[in-house]
Amino acid sequence: MTDSDATALAERVRDGELRLYELEDHADPDTAAAARRHLLAEETGADLSAVGDYTFDAADAESNIENMVGAVQVPMGVVGPLPVDGGAAEGDHHLPLATSEGALLASVNRGVSTIRNAGGATARVLKSGMTRAPVFRVEDVAKAGEVSAWVREHVDVLADAAESTTSHGELQDVTPYVVGDSVFLRFSYDTKDAMGMNMATIATEAACDVVESETPADLVALSGNLCSDKKPAAINAVEGRGRTVAADVLIPHEQVEERLDTTSDAIVEANTRKNLVGSAKAGALGFNAHTANVVAAAFLALGQDIAQVVEGNNAITTVDAREDGLYASVTIPFLEVGNVGRGRFPEAFGGLEVGGDNGGGGDPAGSNAEALGEVIAGGALAGELSLLAALSSRHLSSAHAELGR
Ligand SMILES: CC(C)(COP(=O)([O-])OP(=O)([O-])OC[C@H]1O[C@@H](n2cnc3c(N)ncnc32)[C@H](O)[C@@H]1OP(=O)([O-])[O-])[C@@H](O)C(=O)NCCC(=O)NCCSC(=O)C[C@@](C)(O)CC(=O)[O-]
Ligand SMILES: NC(=O)C1=CN([C@@H]2O[C@H](COP(=O)(O)OP(=O)(O)OC[C@H]3O[C@@H](n4cnc5c(N)ncnc54)[C@H](OP(=O)(O)O)[C@@H]3O)[C@@H](O)[C@H]2O)C=CC1
């Protein structure tokens, strides 16, 4: 690619000959991106040289982005080693976290070193199922009842149709929900080592064809918002979505005092009044301090779908001053993670292995993605412990003044 190629391409857009989004039909993806940067810089006066200084071939991102201009760079750090005794994860793990929030990594790292010193975290994926819930229109509630009954009696027929579109996914169940003349069918899939949103959507569309041909239901929208993707929703908090994962640890009281500069009782009171009572009064769906910080930073660093952090924030943090130590847990009802699939854009993060191996070779199938979920849950637990400690020892603002400014 030469700059003159990009400039010439930009000229053709400016002259109205080409549309901005069709430049890859006329030049290689890197030149197309350069032409868009040229036009954007000209219009805005912005210096886009850093945006254009990316290290991967733009062609490798073609299934991840449209109208590409370049790449954004976010500082990435690492916390660990975090020992995780998981259902899938085992041993010590380093968790990369990408963020622009000063003090966050120091805090999570403090929680990690406290957990490590106490012998490590235990973690388990308690349920796994990626959901897609199309909405259908019917004549009336009598027909809605008829469609629901048909669906319940023909899950196997729907599974045949759905599973014909994938060589990995398995339909677990289909649950009908009715509101007047609307019927929602919440399909849940075992997506193995993939996060599975594309898989579930493609498979569900095939199943919808069967519902429309066999029942009086007419499909209105392939996603009826009861899935519920990228929106905080109680159905996910109760039923789970993606991986439902929990992590916990028991920290001797003296280690709480030595490493977190506070007491177990102070942490318990802060969690009760803040994460439980405060969240309840706020009408929050999640009862935690900042699990979204760790989920977002891990998703960014590991090429997950960053919009699905919405779900990761609906965690519940519990702490209890037991006789033999401070018991702490984080339960994340829906963590949508995967180790395989184009959506992860491995070129961006260099295929860092976290939890299980990168890719789809989990044995049993799905265990790589489960291990990733367990390590992220362990990181979220570390972040909860450290922030609760900082709040109860009154170090929050000083930490951010020192590290975040
Ligand atoms: C900042 C600290 C950790 C100091 O805490 P400290 O105890 O003074 O730190 P320390 O120097 O004694 O080191 C203790 C451990 O911290 C780690 N550590 C210490 N410094 C670093 C560093 N530079 N880089 C990496 N790791 C670091 C490190 O692990 C070290 O242990 P070691 O490994 O040496 O045995 C503490 O004051 C703290 O955690 N404060 C809380 C800050 C925080 O959690 N911020 C993020 C959340 S704020 C937010 O976005 C959410 C919020 C608050 O709005 C949500 C809500 O509403 O609640
Ligand atoms: N479509 C939508 O409505 C939405 C899509 N997304 C996007 O979806 C993407 C994630 O969806 P996802 O389906 O995971 O991604 P991909 O479609 O990118 O990849 C998943 C595919 O990888 C294949 N595969 C290969 N090996 C394995 C294995 N061991 N386990 C499981 N699958 C394997 C499967 O193909 P096969 O099925 O052919 O066997 C599977 O469908 C992200 O980019 C996200 O942003 C997010 C929200 C909504």
TrEMBL record:
<comment type="similarity">
    <text>Belongs to the HMG-CoA reductase family.</text>
</comment>
<dbReference type="GO" id="GO:0015936">
    <property type="term" value="P:coenzyme A metabolic process"/>
</dbReference>
<dbReference type="GO" id="GO:0004420">
    <property type="term" value="F:hydroxymethylglutaryl-CoA reductase (NADPH) activity"/>
</dbReference>
<dbReference type="InterPro" id="IPR009023">
    <property type="entry name" value="HMG_CoA_Rdtase_NAD(P)-bd_sf"/>
</dbReference>
<dbReference type="GO" id="GO:0008299">
    <property type="term" value="P:isoprenoid biosynthetic process"/>
</dbReference>
<protein>
    <recommendedName>
        <fullName>hydroxymethylglutaryl-CoA reductase (NADPH)</fullName>
        <ecNumber>1.1.1.34</ecNumber>
    </recommendedName>
</protein>
<dbReference type="InterPro" id="IPR004554">
    <property type="entry name" value="HMG_CoA_Rdtase_eu_arc"/>
</dbReference>
<keyword id="KW-0560">Oxidoreductase</keyword>
<dbReference type="Pfam" id="PF00368">
    <property type="entry name" value="HMG-CoA_red"/>
</dbReference>
<dbReference type="InterPro" id="IPR009029">
    <property type="entry name" value="HMG_CoA_Rdtase_sub-bd_dom_sf"/>
</dbReference>
<keyword id="KW-0521">NADP</keyword>
<dbReference type="InterPro" id="IPR002202">
    <property type="entry name" value="HMG_CoA_Rdtase"/>
</dbReference>
<dbReference type="GO" id="GO:0016126">
    <property type="term" value="P:sterol biosynthetic process"/>
</dbReference>
<dbReference type="InterPro" id="IPR023076">
    <property type="entry name" value="HMG_CoA_Rdtase_CS"/>
</dbReference>
<dbReference type="InterPro" id="IPR023074">
    <property type="entry name" value="HMG_CoA_Rdtase_cat_sf"/>
</dbReference>
